[in-house]
């Protein structure tokens, strides 16, 4: 770790030309909550628990499950720019008050699913900047499999691997489209070298250095109303280097094979070797952060990943068009202990199957549902 008078590396990205809201993005299980807590501990920056407010913005633009819900404001004479101005004032007021109540001058927001709303965020907040954090795919997948163990879908290795791939694909695509507004860092670099990484990040954000970002566990614990926050993260825990390799001791071989088969190329794109927990290559020569311009150049070296093409967002991130979506009652049977036990047994069996056999079973299941 650098000393207190250390300066950011000379090779770091140039400071962002915008100084508006800070949006933290990343796939689930990538360390977005840790980064939020660190930045929120800065004397000038306020970033609350994740809100997912852009889903509400979608609902404002398109009234959910109403056939004529798409253009209701337009029919009343409001242009999109005028309507967005109202929404911007509304959300800015909510977040600004939160920041002011905490004695902060600048607000931010952290929600992983907002990766799919960057276009709308960039239009709503023309001075917003985006901080993306990535993590080794094995660590991210293992984290989500463990977190969602009781959910037969979200807790599957295939689903979590797909979630990792699609989100980090979209982050790269958006960064290439908005190179001056994006910066990337890696969880492993943040945990191993928190001060150098945070110095580079704060310099890019145009904010002064603060030792408080390294003492986030003390800052957050002193004002927390709850110890555990999103992602099951404890606010009073300091940076823990052991988390970098912990996943290698918990991930089973079928899941490891899924990570190896599906995510090795995107891992290489972000400087990882899929079989090694530590980063194999720097994001940027002589620096710990990577700019959107770096991403744009790197994409050209990975044409097989198709990173200039937008993946299809998940259904919850789209307007709820009744021609495409319908409501069905929640099946309370899945909450019954007997059913839950049967599913846990089935999941345990699935995890012991070879990766190819898992894929076959899931394919049969999908076809039967159709």
TrEMBL record:
<dbReference type="InterPro" id="IPR026634">
    <property type="entry name" value="TPST-like"/>
</dbReference>
<protein>
    <recommendedName>
        <fullName>Sulfotransferase</fullName>
    </recommendedName>
</protein>
<dbReference type="Pfam" id="PF13469">
    <property type="entry name" value="Sulfotransfer_3"/>
</dbReference>
<dbReference type="GO" id="GO:0008476">
    <property type="term" value="F:protein-tyrosine sulfotransferase activity"/>
</dbReference>
<dbReference type="InterPro" id="IPR027417">
    <property type="entry name" value="P-loop_NTPase"/>
</dbReference>
<keyword id="KW-0808">Transferase</keyword>
């Amino acid at each position: 770790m650098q000393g207190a008078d250390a300066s950011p590396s000379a090779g770091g990205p140039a400071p962002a030309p915008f100084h508006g809201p800070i949006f933290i993005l990343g796939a689930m299980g990538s360390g977005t909550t840790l980064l939020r807590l660190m930045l929120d501990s800065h004397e000038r920056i306020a970033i609350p628990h994740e809100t997912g407010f852009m889903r509400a913005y979608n609902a404002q633009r398109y009234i959910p499950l109403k056939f004529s819900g798409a253009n209701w404001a337009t029919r009343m004479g409001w242009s999109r720019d005028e309507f967005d101005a109202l929404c911007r004032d509304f959300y800015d007021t909510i977040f600004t008050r939160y920041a002011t109540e905490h004695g902060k001058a600048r607000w931010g927001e952290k929600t992983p699913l907002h990766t799919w709303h960057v276009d709308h965020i960039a239009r709503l907040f023309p001075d917003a900047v985006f901080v993306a954090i990535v993590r080794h795919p094995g660590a991210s997948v293992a984290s989500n499999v463990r977190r969602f163990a009781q959910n037969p879908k979200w807790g599957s290795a295939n689903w979590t691997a797909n979630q990792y791939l699609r989100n980090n694909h979209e982050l790269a695509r958006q960064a290439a489209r908005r190179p001056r507004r994006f910066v990337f860092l890696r969880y492993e670099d943040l945990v191993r070298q928190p001060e150098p990484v945070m110095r580079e990040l704060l310099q890019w954000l145009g904010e002064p250095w603060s030792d408080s970002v390294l003492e986030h566990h003390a800052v957050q614990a002193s004002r927390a109303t709850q110890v555990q926050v999103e992602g099951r993260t404890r606010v009073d825990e300091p940076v823990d280097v052991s988390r970098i390799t912990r996943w290698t001791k918990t991930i089973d071989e079928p899941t490891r094979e899924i990570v190896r088969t599906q995510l090795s190329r995107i891992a290489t794109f972000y400087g990882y070797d899929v079989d090694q927990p530590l980063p194999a290559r720097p994001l940027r020569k002589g620096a710990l952060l990577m700019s959107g311009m770096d991403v744009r150049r790197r994409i050209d070296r990975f044409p097989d990943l198709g990173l200039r093409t937008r993946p299809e967002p998940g259904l919850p991130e789209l307007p709820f068009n009744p021609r495409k979506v319908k409501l069905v009652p929640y099946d309370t049977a899945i909450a019954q202990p007997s059913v839950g036990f049967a599913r846990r047994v089935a999941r345990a069996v699935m995890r012991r199957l070879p990766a190819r056999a898992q894929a076959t079973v899931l394919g049969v299941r999908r076809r039967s549902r159709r």
